[in-house]
Please model this.
Amino acid sequence: MPEAAGSVTEATRQVYWNINTDYLWVMYALMVLMTVAMGYGTWQRVRTWLIGKPEVRWDRPGQRLRRVLVHALGQARLLKNWLPGIAHALLFFGFIVLFLGTVVVFIHEDLGIPIMRGRFYLYFHSLTLDVFGALATIGLGVFLWRRYVMRPGQLEKGKVSDFLLLLGLFVIMVTGFVIEGVRLVVTQDPWRLWSPFGYLTGLALAALFPGEAALRAVHAATWWFHMAVVFAWLGALPYTKAFHLITGPLNVFFSNLDAKGEPKPMDLEDETAALGARTALDLTWKQLLDLDACTECGRCEAACPAFAEGKPLSPKRVILDLREHVHAHRDELLRAKAAQLAGDQETYESIVNHLPILAGGVIKEETLWACTTCRACEEACPVFIEHVPTILEMRRYLAMEQAEMPETLASAMESMETRQHPYRGATADRTDWYRDLPVRTMAEVEDPEEIEYLYWVGCAGAFDERVQKVARALARVMDRAGIKFAVLGPEEQCTGDPARRSGNEYHYEMLARANVETLNSYKVRRIVTHCPHCLQQLKHEYKRFGGHYEVIHHSELVFKLMEEGKLDLARELHQALRVTYHDPCYLGRYNDVYDAPRGVLDGLGTQRVEMARSRERSFCCGAGGAHMWYEDKQGGKINRNRAEEAVGTGAEVVVTGCPFCLAMMESGIKGVEGAEERGVKVRDFVELVDEALAQNDGEAAAGAQAGSAD
Ligand code: SF4
Ligand code: SF4
Model:
């Protein structure tokens, strides 16, 4: 005799319908086993993170929670890739709702608080759970189809455990519908239409297994099987990659809120501190958490320019190889940490000396040098893993501890040490580029207070002939807009960016401290620069040395001047010009400056076309991370890849706002099919602004032409 589903007036149901409650102890025993397995596995993971160095990542909790809401709950980054994004969202929300449903059952049945009744039962426990269960099953189906039928390149074939994880979830979903459906059909539950998918499943099973006894047997067997799979899946969670359900949101919460891509600070005064990461003990706890947060989705790899050009670098593999290493050597690492905390240096050293070195051991040297630090991987990663500082930490070990680095890079470093710039063989000095222009140095200015902007020219602007033209154009534009500016001239030194990005923290600090001292001696407050790498240093990374300035990119200044009507431009000059804008990584992804350069181009009246990979998805030119001074011979050319895309838009001019991008794109378009015949040029946008001003200004035009030998 079917049991009543509840009173006629108040909807509810009996939780253990058809289940012999004499055996419920088996379920509770399984639950205890699951909890122990889960707890032990989780503790093992947490202990591993705690071997890392300290790092404060719990300040600004409000901002962190917002990020979790947008990116963990809201799935914002995941949804940028629509198919896997939607599938993941269906699965994610489906499971959250089903989990809440289980909590409701626990409160109702085990705690004896009768909440599973009435409208709440109908709207939430019947309809919502049923619909979300169906959506989660669809999401799961898409995942299985994508991974095992479609197989996009970024997804590896996968381990058996990955398949079992997905299969386990699928079984949980399907058996859930079977249990629900059989009960609805056998009891003729008066509220069965509130669970449409379960009811349909029940009807299908009733056709397959006619008769109540058969259906009851199916129900009981499926119920126990469902329970066993649920507990096994949850118990296995910390031992599989599905643990990212926990570590993903955690990693988003603890993600970096400060300057993007900045290497970890080093205390060079501390003689006991490691120079870079020799072992996992030299990484911070957050860097170790990063490893466990990886979902192996491959988005970072798909975005990586080095990987795209067949260089020996996959950001995903870097993270996974480090993770496998840490898990494989967990016991030694834990013992070493305990010895370190106990001050037992001898034991610590003896353990550490037997561990594989990270840089050059776990991760190949050529892998570490192949990174352009473009941050495309970080921007693509749905769980905010920070690949760049970890790669740079290992580079530091190579550069400072092992004195290993590519030869061309080493000679640029040598030049930085002896001549304070990386342009080995350059004959110009820092004043040559402006000799015939009305440019003053801070030392020549009587009252530094009158200076609105310190123009930070950078080494490229001073020593590279092509970039000198950009510096001259910007100086003319500022002059015509009536901006009071000055330069440091001979007092300027390289910001140290190439040294820092190649792991030479000593060189970097020397240059950074000298520059901050000079800038502070003139009480500089506002700086404009045409170099995004200098911008990154001056705006963010000099703060540690006491350099606090308001720093803007020249695109932001020029756009502001245009908006204020301070530039009398001949808009007809570039009206028919088809241009495409290449976002420099250190301007866009590092500093979120996307609109100002585009605003300038639109203000000039150009016909702007976007490349498919633009804004935060921009593809690196190949020069970042000190690669301007290091030609990676393995694989193809990153700049050629980008130049082909730019030329493919049909643009006559490829515009950019970075001296390194300018050089890389100019060399990249050489030989790109159609580029030469169409006369495609590469320009900094300020050169176009300068020309448009010159057109409306006879006197300045003469100047511009003189400099356009410039
Ligand atoms: S920073 Fe750029 S080059 Fe380096 S791993 Fe990430 S995507 Fe690849
Ligand atoms: S590091 Fe991030 S983007 Fe790369 S595979 Fe892991 S989760 Fe995906």
